[in-house]
Amino acid sequence: MGHMASTAGTDVERLRRFFRDGAPGPNAHVVLLGLAVFDTVDLVDAIRKGFRYETFERFRRNIALPVETIMALVNIPRRTLTRRKLEGRFAPEESDRLVRASRVYSKALQLFDGDSEAASRWLVAPQRGLGGEVPVLLSSTDVGAREVERLIDRLEHGVFA
User: Which positions ≥6 away from 41 have C-beta within 8 Å?
Assistant: First the structure.
């Protein structure tokens, strides 16, 4: 299987199976980037090298969000994205943000029992539990992403405060 998994439609399906049958480690969400590197040390190594541009395209195809929304989530301006497409590779910090974006999306997907449309709708709507902030915009920073993940955890456990 190498670094890239098979086709895009099956990435979300694989993640749903991980939810159901157990994940191959704490980084199963990177399947949304088309990666098959679930071990943390190997993933950090891949981040340091910088992901290939295809990981962004794979993520875009896997999640039901417009490219502008994904650029906001990953905190990559259009000009930088265009440059990365030409260069074929992301910088380590951008690769790290792609991993964070896949983690947040994966948690939302899990919250909605694997329903991509519902997860995407929730991520782009202002949430009372975030003081009216939009999860996808808040998640463009690490601090914001952690807050979104805490809210998802509370919602999963039926704690709405």
Answer: none
- Which residues, including other chains, have CB under 8 Å from residue 18's CB and lie 6 or more apart? 24, 28, 31
What would the two tokens of residue 1 be?
Answer: 């299987």
pLDDT tens for 57-67 read 999 999 979 99
Output the pTM of the full model.
0.90
Residue 6 has pLDDT above 70, yes or no: no
Domain boundaries, the chain: 8-156
Asked if 27 and 71 count as a contact pair (C-beta separation under 8 A), the reply is no
Torsion of CA 67, 148, 49, 29, to 10 degrees: -80
Q: What is the pLDDT of residues 138-158, one digit of tens each?
A: 999 999 999 999 999 999 988
HSE-CB of 28 using CA atoms within 13 angstroms: 19
What is the pLDDT at residue 25? 83
